[in-house]
Amino acid sequence: ESGRAWKDSFSSLFLFPGLQLWLGKALLHISADNWGILIATAEYSGYLEHWDEPFCTNCYSKFPGLMKLGKDITLGGLEIGLLTMKKGEVARFVFTPAYAYGRQGCPPLIPPNATVMFEVEVLDFLDSDESDTFFQLTAEQQDTFPLQKVLKVADTEREFGNYLYRKRFCWVML
């Protein structure tokens, strides 16, 4: 179901069993499995209450961008929401102003004190923590890095490179 089904009021979401998280009232289950994951690829659409079209979406992009948690995501609620999810999962999140655009909103599109709903589908997660650590080391320190960790770094970099190659290849084909 798209956001159009909820254009009347976000309060109706509380009757729907697919709701995972209502930030501002209660925080439900943050998966410990995802705390080390730093990069996510997700499709999302953001809706204002009583709107039938999203105010922001990346669902029309063939390859949504990579979002580094703790760095690239501007909404605190969206970052926390992503941490509750697994690859392939779809969720709706309702964010109070404190977890979205705050008291001031984001004029002219987002009014002050706006509660927003995001529909999110996690396409993939990439754990770059080991790679980030490895590439911050000096060459001498990298030489002493355990082989299993070096292999994990190489695999992460391969996955990242493959994603960027597919994204580039598709842009060339368009």
From TrEMBL:
Any one GO cellular component localisation term in the record: cytoplasm
Signal peptide positions on this chain: 1-26
Enzyme Commission code(s) on record: 5.2.1.8
GO biological process, one term: spermatogenesis
Enzyme class: isomerase
Gene Ontology MF terms in the entry: Hsp90 protein binding; peptidyl-prolyl cis-trans isomerase activity
All residue ranges annotated as the PPIase FKBP-type domain in the record: 37-126
UniProt KW keywords: Isomerase, Repeat, Rotamase, Signal, TPR repeat
Catalytic activity, reaction form: [protein]-peptidylproline (omega=180) = [protein]-peptidylproline (omega=0)
UniProt xrefs under SUPFAM superfamilies: FKBP-like
Family, per entry: Belongs to the FKBP6 family.
Protein name as annotated: peptidylprolyl isomerase
